[in-house]
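Risk register update: the risk of archive-format incompatibility is retired. Evidence:
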Amino acid sequence: MEAPERTETSPTGLAHVATVSFLAARAAPSAQFWLALAGGIGLARISALHGLRAGYGSSLASMLQTIAVMGPARVNGPLTQALTAPLLGKLHRRGSSVPLQVVACFAIRITHYVVLTAALVWIVFGGLDAYTNSYDRLTGWLGIFPEGERGALIVTAVINISLAVFYSVTQVLVYRWALSAWPEDAPPAIPPAAGANEDRGSLRFDPRAITLAAAVAFGLLLSGTDWAMLASVSAFLALAWAVSRPDPEALGLGLALTGVLAFGALIASLVAGLGIEEALQRASRAGLLVLVATWLRAAAGPAGLRETFRRMLWRVRRVPPAREASEILDGLDSGDRLIASGRTLIDALAPVEKMPLPVAAVVRDWVAAEAAGFRAGVAAPRARLAVAARDGLLLVLAAAPAVTLFAHG
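Archived output:
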C-alpha cells in the first residue's frame, strides 16, 4: 500500500498559503509585491512538483478564494505573481537559466502593466488626450522630460519597463533560492480550532444571480459617465443593498476603498483639465465601481461566491486548468485558518533581523510549515444554491439603467 502524499507537497496546502499571502497583499496599503512573494513561492513549488496545469489551477483557485473573501477590489496587487509563479516553477524544474526565467517573467509582467495602464487611461482620464494633458501639467515645469503625447508614452513605457525588470529579477532570484533550499522536513504548523464565525451572504438572493447582477452593473458603469447612468446605477445599488440583507462586515473596507479611488479619480481628472463636471462624473463612476464590488462580496458572501466560482469552473472543466482549480478551491478555507496563518507569519518575522536573507528564510520556512499543517476538506460547508423568481427580478433591476443608453443614443 502506498504511503499517503505529504500535505506540504499537495497543491491544496500550498494554494492555501498563496491565498493567505495574496489576501495580505490586497489588504495592505503598500508593499503588495513583497507580501505576495510568499504566495508566489508556494505556487512555484506546486508547478515544480506537479506540473504547469496544477500550478495554474492552484493559482486560479487561490485568486478566486481571495475574491470570495474580500471581493474583487485591489486584485491586481498579487495578480502578476499568480500569472508568473507557475511558469517560473516549471522552468526551475527543467533547469532553465536565470536569464530565460527573467525574460519569461518580464514578458508576462509588461503585458499586465500595459493592460493596467490602458485601463487607467480609459477609465480615469477618458482617453489619451486627457492623460497627455495631465502628464504635461505634472512634468512640464521641470523642463527635463519630453512633452506631448509622445513624451507621455515614452515616460510611461520607461517606468513600466523599469518596474517590470526590477520585479522580474527579484522574483526569479527569490523563487530559485527558495525552491533550491526547500526545508524538506519542515515541522507542520498546528491548525487552529474551528471557529463559529458565520460564513454568510444574502438571505434572499442566489449568489449566482448576485454575481451576474454585479457584472451587469459593472459593465454599464464602464460604458460611460453620463449622469443619468450614474444615478440609475446608484439607485439600483441602494435598492439592492436594502433588499438583499447583505453581511455588513465588508462595508467598512469597501467605503474606505471607495473614498480613495474616487478622490484619486477626481484629482487626476482635474489635473488633466477635464473640468469640474466631468471630474465629478469620473470620480462618481470610480466610487460606484468599488461599491458594486463591495455589494457583491457582502451580498453573495464568501461561501456563496466560492460555490459560484466552483460550479463555473466545473462547467468549463475541459478547459485547462479549470478542473484542477475547481478541485483545489473546494478544499480551501475562508475563515479562522486564514487569519491564524497570517498572524503566524507576523509572529515569526517579529524577532528576525530585517535584512533580505533572514526575512526570506523565515518566509520560505513559513510557507513549508503552513502547507504541511493544512488539511484539505475542512472548509466551510458549501452554500446551497437555489434560483427563485426574485433572482430574475434582481437581474432585471440591474439591467434597467441600460435604458439611459438608448435615451441618450
